[in-house]
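Hi all, posting the design record for the shared folder.

TITLE: backbone redesign
STEP: 1 of 1
STRUCTURE INPUT:
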């Protein structure tokens, strides 16, 4: 477990790199953060994924605004009581355009491919909240590098905007999994249906599930949105996808 600096076209992205104890190498996984960024809880999630047999890279996608943490956060995040957190994060999130996302994704994937800690071959990608959209864009933009991708409580995955992530479905070669929260204003039912239709029409191998009783952010144990049952369901689905796609007999 260590912090690494990933060279990009715009500088260096600080990132958390974690891997199993013992001998390697292991299949690579790119883990995209939520808007709150790389912090102790997200590193713990990466460590849990690494313990299942993966080398995991968690980049600070906001690196253009500074090293993580870009915004100082309390140990327990409750946006309803701390609205200034989103007020500060909003402009930073909006500054990360699809063009910048994909330019950076190339650097993150190259870093994993060049690492002696990863096996040869395609990688897996997973993302949370805003990271779910980044995962979908990465799978679509790098179909030869990504064989499995997942997203959880993603927002605006299938909006009516001209750059909505779902419009890239016909470029995806990976198997996809999405775990939606049924009480998520950032992904209303019409977007859930639109994403499902786009993936089906494009012939993408996928499974989309709606988690009952879950809110946006249900996997994040350091936030008010955390739902233990839904979080464990997410782990089961994620490991099933990656174990089937990334581990060979």
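Okay, here is what came back for every position:
SEQUENCE:
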């Amino acid at each position: 477990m260590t912090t690494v600096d990933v060279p990009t076209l715009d500088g260096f992205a600080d990132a958390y790199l974690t891997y199993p104890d013992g001998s390697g190498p292991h299949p690579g996984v790119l883990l995209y953060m939520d808007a709150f960024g790389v912090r102790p809880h997200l590193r713990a999630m990466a460590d849990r994924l690494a313990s299942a047999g993966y080398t995991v890279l968690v980049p600070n996608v906001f690196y253009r605004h500074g090293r993580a943490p870009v915004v100082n956060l309390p140990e327990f995040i409750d946006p309803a009581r701390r609205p200034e957190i989103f007020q500060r994060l909003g402009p930073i999130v909006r500054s990360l355009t699809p063009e910048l996302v994909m330019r950076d994704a190339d650097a993150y994937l190259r870093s994993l491919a060049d690492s002696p800690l990863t096996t040869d071959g395609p990688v897996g990608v997973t993302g949370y909240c805003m990271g779910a959209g980044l995962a979908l864009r990465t799978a679509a933009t790098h179909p030869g590098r990504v064989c499995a991708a997942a997203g959880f409580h993603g927002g605006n995955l299938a909006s009516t905007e001209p750059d909505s992530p779902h419009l890239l479905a016909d470029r995806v070669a990976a198997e996809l999994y999405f775990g939606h929260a049924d009480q998520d204003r950032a992904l209303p039912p019409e977007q859930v249906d639109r994403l499902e239709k786009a993936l089906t029409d494009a012939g993408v191998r996928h499974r989309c599930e709606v988690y009952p009783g879950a809110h946006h952010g249900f996997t994040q144990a350091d936030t008010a949105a955390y739902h233990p049952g839904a979080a464990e369901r997410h782990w089961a689905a994620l490991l099933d996808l990656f174990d089937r796609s990334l581990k060979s007999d």
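COMMENT: The helical segments are 40-51, 83-95, 98-114, 130-141, 189-201, 228-246.
Let me know if anyone wants the other runs.
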